[in-house]
Amino acid sequence: MGGALGGGLLVNVIFGSAALTANVSGGTVVQPGHTYLQAGVAEAVGTALLLFTIMALAVDARAPTGWAGLIIGLVVACEIRVIGPISNGLVNPARTFGPYAATTIFGGHTPWQEFWLYWVGPVIGAVVAAAAYVFVAQPRPSTPPPGRTPEAE
Predict the structure, then answer these.
(1) Is the model's pLDDT at 5 over the cut of 90?
(2) For residue 144, is it within any domain?
(3) CA distance 70 to 48
(4) What ranges in 27-116 are assigned the alpha helix state H?
(5) Number of domains comprising the chain
(6) Residue pLDDT, tens place only, 69-83
(7) What is the CATH number of the domain that holds 89?
(8) pLDDT over 90 (residue 86)
(9) pTM, whole model, 2 decimals?
(10) Contacts 24+ apart (CB under 8 A), 55-58
(11) DSSP for 29-45?
């Protein structure tokens, strides 16, 4: 949250008053023609896909090494392209908070009434992804390498 606020403040310091009107200092808004429900569901789906990918490639011990960064980056890029036109596709509550707070500090108009959906959507998406991953992938607890015991660590 602090890093996001710092980034939002820097956007305003660098770009001045133009940043306040440029999509809430680089923040998120529900795009015209879309409802809060559509934006919330888009954020939930985007978060679920991202978290599922992270769990499969960066957390699961069975994942092939060396691919996590590339694939996670591609998932983020695709997610932004698909849900960006609906909700700006941030799937990160802190990424919404920073620009909103910075815009408020510098006196701009901030759509705080939309803030809740940038928390609710990602939280629901994360819970669904975690449950789905456990159900589908059935990860096993990692075991220590031969010759090492958990007590020794």
Answers:
(1) yes
(2) no
(3) 18
(4) 36-54, 68-87, 93-105
(5) 1
(6) 999 999 999 999 999
(7) 1.20.1080.10
(8) yes
(9) 0.83
(10) 55/129, 55/130, 55/133, 55/137, 55/139, 56/133, 56/137
(11) -PPTT--HHHHHHHHHH
